[in-house]
Amino acid sequence: RYLYLQVLGGKAFLEHLQEPEPLPGQVCSTFTLHLHFRNQRFRSKPVPCACEPDLQEGFLLEVHRDGPGDASKMADATTMLSICDQVHMVLIKTDTSEDTTLVSSYFLDWRRVLCAPNGKTNVSVELLGVGKQMPYY
After folding, report:
1. Is residue 48 situated within a structural domain?
2. How far apart are CA 22 and CA 78, in angstroms?
3. Is residue 128 part of a domain?
4. Residue 47 falls within a domain, yes or no?
5. Contact by Cβ (8 Å): 83, 75
6. Domains in the chain: how many in total?
7. The domain that contains 7 carries what CATH number?
8. By its UniProt entry, which Pfam families does this protein fall under (predicted)?
9. How high is the pLDDT of residue 72?
10. What pTM value is reported for the model?
11. For a Cys staple, 136 with which of 47, 110, 127, 132, CB 3.0–4.6 Å?
């Protein structure tokens, strides 16, 4: 079994409201979304920091069984309901000098898709900034 997680963009990154559109070839600060799910790691392509960053990415997550010797077996629907591991989403900002900053960390409970019609659901995730930053959506 697989879980396909599609990121459809970002909105209200207010800290970057006044950020000018980067010119072609210009070095600029970027956002990268990192995911972790059951020993699988993924990351998006870096996108320029903006008030509405163009985070358009799809991730195919494998859902395996937990038991000994079952690591290579896909989980059935009943087993999937019992899996409580969440998708850990981490947003990182990389500035022009290659320094990285944690922008947000979020745990997504993916199991709601199991009871959704056609096995699809849309979820808006609020990525709260760390420290004194504003919340990101």
Report:
1. yes
2. 48
3. no
4. yes
5. yes
6. 1
7. 2.60.40.150
8. CEP76-C2 (PF15627)
9. 58
10. 0.79
11. 127
CA angle 9, 10, 16 (to 5 degrees): 140
Per-residue 3-state assignment (H helix, E strand, C coil) for the chain:
CEEEEEEECCCCCHHHCCCCCCCCCCCCCEEEEEEEECCEEEECCCEECCCCCCCEEEEEEECECCCCCCCCCECCHHHHHHCCCCEEEEEEEECCCCCEEEEEEEEECHHHHHHCHHHCCCCCCCECCCCCCCCEC
32 vs 57: CA distance, rounded Å: 11
The predicted structure's pLDDT at residue 68? 56
In a domain, 7, yes or no: yes
- The gap between the terminal CA atoms of the chain, to the nearest Å, is 29
Type of residue found at 33: L
- Give me the pLDDT at residue 137, please: 46
61 is in which domain, residue-wise? 2-119
Tokens of 26: 């210009």
Q: How many CB atoms lie within 10 A of CB 127?
A: 19
